[in-house]
Amino acid sequence: MITTLGVHSNMLGKTALIVVDVQNDFMETGSLPVPSASEILPVVNQLINGIKDRGGLVVATKDWHPPNHISFASNTPNGKVFETKTMEYEGETFAQQLWPDHCVQNSKGAEFTDGLETTKFDITVLKGSNQNVDSYSGFADNKYFEITELAKHLFTRQIETVIVVGLAADYCVKETALDARKFGFRTILVKEGTRGVVPDNFDSCMDDLRSKGVQVTSIQDQEFTTEFLF
Ligand code: VGL
Ligand code: ZN
């Protein structure tokens, strides 16, 4: 690994960027559109290049559902998109929000969106593949039946700081950031690098994350760019 002298050298290699679910189905023309999703792309790419150039790890997640997934309204009798249903699996009862079919394994909608710097990704973590339980976080399913290999990769690399961006702010980005905190990482969310399914809830979502120990920052913040980008 290349190291440089000076104030930045203490972070080299210790930072991971997690790019959450920047997939066609979450873009404006996708099946589960996040308003203004494509606006995040320049910021996400800047972070991918910046973190990568400085020896950090770049990880992407993909929502990766089988066609019969529990979260699809089409798989629940009388299920309506956006309503919440009570589900049961492995003796646990839980609320499950219903969604349009999205990110079906190997479909076009599940592909990373054009314009994303995917060649820089070190690792892609798939989630949501268990038919019976949803997985918003890149670290684990919503009921913690199983964790993904994401934490193992971060621990193997002795990552200390995790920067989270992607889609959607109010679901998968939020839960990924909260789990990053729970797994012990300093966790930073770059607000220009994410958008919410429900834009009106964006500010309260950021407040909630802050109250739980996630640092919410701006790509304009000098302290942030000095530490991680330049
Ligand atoms: C997501 C809803 C359902 C997300 C994934 O990536 O935020 N939201 N599946
Ligand atoms: Zn999903």
Helix-strand layout with pairing:
Elements: E1 15-20, H1 41-53, E2 57-63, E3 84-89, E4 92-97, E5 123-127, H2 150-156, E6 161-167, H3 169-182, E7 186-195, H4 202-211, E8 215-217, H5 222-228
Parallel strand pairs: 1-2, 1-6, 2-5, 6-7, 7-8
Antiparallel strand pairs: 3-4
Bound molecules: pyrazine-2-carboxylic acid and zinc ion.
The site of zinc ion (ZN) has 6 residues, from loops.
Summed up:
The chain is α/β, with parallel strands linked by helices and 230 residues long. The protein is built from 5 helices and 8 strands. The site of zinc ion has 6 residues, from loops.
Series of secondary-structure elements, N-terminal to C-terminal: EHEEEEHEHEHEH
User: Would you count the extended β strands for me?
Assistant: 8
Reported by name, the CATH topology is Rossmann fold
The average pLDDT is: 95
* Number of helical regions: 5
> Which residues sit in consecutive blocks of at least 5 with pLDDT less than 50?
2-10
Characterize the biggest β-sheet. Answer: 6 strands, parallel
